[in-house]
Amino acid sequence: MSVFGTTRDGLNRALRHFGVQVVRGHSDDPAIQPFLSARKTLTAARRAGISVEDYIDRYSAAPGATAESVDALLRLADLGEHVERVCEIGAGSGRYAARVIAATHPGTYEIYETAADWLPRLRSLPNAAVRPTDGHTLSATATESVDLVHAHKLFVYIPLVVAIGYIDEMARVVRPGGTVAFDVVNEDCLDDAMTKHWVSSRATIYGMISRSWLLDRLAQRGLSLLGGHFVPLSGGRTELLVFRRA
Ligand SMILES: C[S@@+](CC[C@H](N)C(=O)[O-])C[C@H]1O[C@@H](n2cnc3c(N)ncnc32)[C@H](O)[C@@H]1O
What we know:
The relative contact order is 0.15. α6 links the parallel β2 (about 110) and β3. By secondary structure, this protein is of the alpha/beta class. The protein contains nine helices and seven strands, in the order ααααβαβαββαβααββ. The chain binds S-adenosylmethionine (SAM). S-adenosylmethionine (SAM) binds near residues 31, 33, 92, 95 and 96.
């Protein structure tokens, strides 16, 4: 096995409990962080006789977590049964997309995703529009055009500056009255147990963002917090933050 393969497998053993896995990437850009292999994940879910959502929830030691997060988002945002346009960054397997689409029946569901192997599955979602993804921006989305822009388990492991750039982009594309939602690890998540887990499992890819700093930055862009909801990240938790644009 190559040095990359040996290192990757060791890292993956450590990361398994966080629900994230490193796979061979297609880019040297540090902004673009690979995810679970689509082929392996879909095969494993099929063999287990369960949906991909259930498989990833179970793999992450958090059964029911996807449904719980989407329910919290919909409850806090109060979106109703139809929205015109939704945008998701880092949709991966599409487990959140499928639930949001089923609940809000958007006319267009824009997707930014850097992992090419998941795109066929994402393209098959109702009204999905996969956008060219440079790993940093929402350049194919017009300013003030979307009702909801969201991201899950992405800003916990991409470089801080890339996450901030995306959050600024979310503030740009959301329409007045629209919703921005994403989860991060902040100071309310990173308690002693989680910190110990990170250190002992050498989970070097994760990072924390200050909650108050984020709230101030978003407030400067006209976004106020509707509420937060803790989401399991095995070995700890993230906080899903939901904002409304004035
Ligand atoms: C940890 S996974 C989470 C996937 C999905 N949101 C979920 O929770 O199941 C992060 C996803 O973001 C994608 N990704 C990584 N870096 C990205 C970037 N810079 N821009 C857009 N997507 C990215 C990965 O390919 C992966 O699908």
